[in-house]
């Protein structure tokens, strides 16, 4: 196959495979895969009072009116810094998981450390309905996620000043205007935000997703500020920190040392 | 879309792009801002100082480098690439002095740097230099010069220009404010460079480095005290302007 110097292309043969000797090896691979698959686990741990109210409610469901999910370092940093920092939120539980791609810790009772694949649930102290567990009625969901701008496909050239920017997607049950343009084709979402939105679409739960495209790799305060308009519609229920002190921002926006010497 | 055409530098995309070169220009935008101004008897280079780590020696983090006694340059982009380009340019300056017995003209050394950069956009297995440079100096006939090069290997002469992170904003400021009166004296030219940088630099004068070359004088790096004095002058002028405008409105 014609290619440039240094590129190696694997060429696929269209010949039918006739040799049977590979079967055993394949079986072994399959066996190993299956064993690892069985080891996959997801653990949900609730704090005692929530566990109690779960038992009391009988149906193992929790009251929830609004669920905010943040996926990605910048989105999670934004939520931590601007919302959860106002000190009226309690951590009520966590989900930790283990599968062959993302190996979490095997300790289940201790809250997961940052950097481990996990999910923390927070509940607003004054308004315990704002948080969530998946209950179908009366629930509205907002997902915040971030993504590198290199994956944003557009026919126009993106000038540096436009980045970071927000795009939105809504489930058909969601009424009302989103606060930023909708995600244009052929861009797609993947991963957890896509799964949440699909679930909401199928079960007719109003959901809106805000995706922020940014050009920095690490959590960064400017990117986090881009999410601010997303919480305006929840401002009655959720109090936003109007302006952050530098210390708080520094906690969440980690400046990687390696980057700072690369460019001058 | 661009995925198949950006792995090898020597491959054009169907619509005529050399993506690696364009990506190198994005790398330049990650460097901090540098501005160059060509005055009548002076050339000025101003840069936004990078924040240094606590234990780092500040003097070793320099964006402005002398290439010869009468030529200096400021760069934006990858630090390591800049070091290589500067070393080659310095060697070329001395080699020119020895063989031709004349100091280089600013255009000659700029052309040398630009040719070097272009060679790396056409070789197999190498990536382009990720820096843009502003090269200033005086030719031996006394004319001040300012040139800018970019990763593709092009170079142009400018009256004033900016490279790096917020180059667009600074350039727009310069387009509005670069007039003959603005560069009438040496001091005015230096103040114009500082004003242009203050548009995009946070926390004012202590994050600015300035270098000037005057005709028949070697490169001079301004001390932070001098820069602070000039910044204070600029602030005072701004306040006086604002006062005058207020008075005009009230009368």
UniProtKB/TrEMBL annotation, chain B:
<protein>
    <recommendedName>
        <fullName>Proteasome subunit alpha type</fullName>
    </recommendedName>
</protein>
<feature type="domain" description="Proteasome alpha-type subunits">
    <location>
        <begin position="5"/>
        <end position="27"/>
    </location>
</feature>
<keyword id="KW-0963">Cytoplasm</keyword>
<dbReference type="GO" id="GO:0006511">
    <property type="term" value="P:ubiquitin-dependent protein catabolic process"/>
</dbReference>
<dbReference type="Pfam" id="PF10584">
    <property type="entry name" value="Proteasome_A_N"/>
</dbReference>
<keyword id="KW-0647">Proteasome</keyword>
<dbReference type="GO" id="GO:0005634">
    <property type="term" value="C:nucleus"/>
</dbReference>
<keyword id="KW-0539">Nucleus</keyword>
<dbReference type="InterPro" id="IPR001353">
    <property type="entry name" value="Proteasome_sua/b"/>
</dbReference>
<dbReference type="GO" id="GO:0005829">
    <property type="term" value="C:cytosol"/>
</dbReference>
<feature type="coiled-coil region">
    <location>
        <begin position="224"/>
        <end position="251"/>
    </location>
</feature>
<comment type="subunit">
    <text>The 26S proteasome consists of a 20S proteasome core and two 19S regulatory subunits.</text>
</comment>
<dbReference type="Pfam" id="PF00227">
    <property type="entry name" value="Proteasome"/>
</dbReference>
<comment type="similarity">
    <text>Belongs to the peptidase T1A family.</text>
</comment>
<keyword id="KW-0175">Coiled coil</keyword>
<dbReference type="InterPro" id="IPR029055">
    <property type="entry name" value="Ntn_hydrolases_N"/>
</dbReference>
<dbReference type="GO" id="GO:0019773">
    <property type="term" value="C:proteasome core complex, alpha-subunit complex"/>
</dbReference>
<dbReference type="InterPro" id="IPR000426">
    <property type="entry name" value="Proteasome_asu_N"/>
</dbReference>
<dbReference type="InterPro" id="IPR050115">
    <property type="entry name" value="Proteasome_alpha"/>
</dbReference>
<dbReference type="InterPro" id="IPR023332">
    <property type="entry name" value="Proteasome_alpha-type"/>
</dbReference>
């Amino acid at each position: 196959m014609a290619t440039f110097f240094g590129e190696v292309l694997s060429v696929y043969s269209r010949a039918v495979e006739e040799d049977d000797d590979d079967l055993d090896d394949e079986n072994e691979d399959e066996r190993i895969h299956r064993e690892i698959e069985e080891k996959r686990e997801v653990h949900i741990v609730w704090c005692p009072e929530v566990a109690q109210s779960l038992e009391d409610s009988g149906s193992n469901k929790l009251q929830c009116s609004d669920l905010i999910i943040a996926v990605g370092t910048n989105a999670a940093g934004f939520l931590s810094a601007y919302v959860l920092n106002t000190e009226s939120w309690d951590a009520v539980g966590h989900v930790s998981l283990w599968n062959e791609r993302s190996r979490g810790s095997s300790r289940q009772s201790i809250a997961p450390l940052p950097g481990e694949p996990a999910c923390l649930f927070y509940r607003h102290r004054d308004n315990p309905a704002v948080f969530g567990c998946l209950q179908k009625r009366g629930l509205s969901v907002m997902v915040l996620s971030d993504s590198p701008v290199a994956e944003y496909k557009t026919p126009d050239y993106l000038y540096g000043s436009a980045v970071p920017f927000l795009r939105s997607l809504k489930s058909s049950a969601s009424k009302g205007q989103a606060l930023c343009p909708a995600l244009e084709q052929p861009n797609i979402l993947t991963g957890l935000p896509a799964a949440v939105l699909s679930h909401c679409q199928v079960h007719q739960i109003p959901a809106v997703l805000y995706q922020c495209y940014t050009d920095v790799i690490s959590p960064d305060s400017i990117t986090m500020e881009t999410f601010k308009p997303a919480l305006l519609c929840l401002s009655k229920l959720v109090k936003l920190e109007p302006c952050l002190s530098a210390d708080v921002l520094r906690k969440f926006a980690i400046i990687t040392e390696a980057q700072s010497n690369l460019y001058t | 879309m661009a995925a198949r055409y950006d792995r090898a530098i020597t491959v054009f995309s169907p619509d005529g792009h050399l993506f690696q070169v364009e990506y190198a220009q994005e790398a330049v935008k990650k460097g901090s801002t540098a501005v160059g101004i060509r005055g009548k008897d002076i050339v000025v280079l101003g840069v936004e100082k990078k924040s240094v780590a606590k234990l780092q020696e500040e003097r070793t983090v320099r964006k402005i480098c002398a290439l010869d006694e009468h030529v200096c340059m400021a760069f934006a982009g990858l630090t390591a690439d800049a070091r290589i380009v500067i070393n080659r340019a310095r060697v070329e300056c001395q080699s020119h002095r020895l063989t031709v017995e004349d100091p280089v003209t600013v255009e000659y050394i700029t052309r040398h740097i630009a040719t070097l950069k272009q060679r790396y956009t056409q070789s197999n297995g190498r990536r382009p230099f990720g820096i843009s440079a502003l090269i200033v100096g005086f030719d031996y006939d006394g004319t001040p010069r300012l040139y800018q090069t970019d990763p593709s290997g092009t170079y142009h002469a400018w009256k004033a220009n900016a490279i790096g992170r917020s180059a667009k904003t600074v350039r727009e400021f310069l387009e509005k404010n670069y007039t003959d009166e603005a560069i009438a004296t040496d001091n005015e030219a230096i103040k114009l460079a500082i004003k242009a940088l203050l548009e995009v630099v946070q926390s004012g004068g202590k994050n600015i480095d300035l270098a000037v070359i005057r005709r028949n004088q070697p490169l001079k790096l301004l001390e932070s005290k001098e820069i602070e004095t000039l910044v204070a002058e600029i602030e005072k002028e701004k306040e006086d302007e604002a006062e005058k405008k207020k008075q005009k409105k009230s009368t």
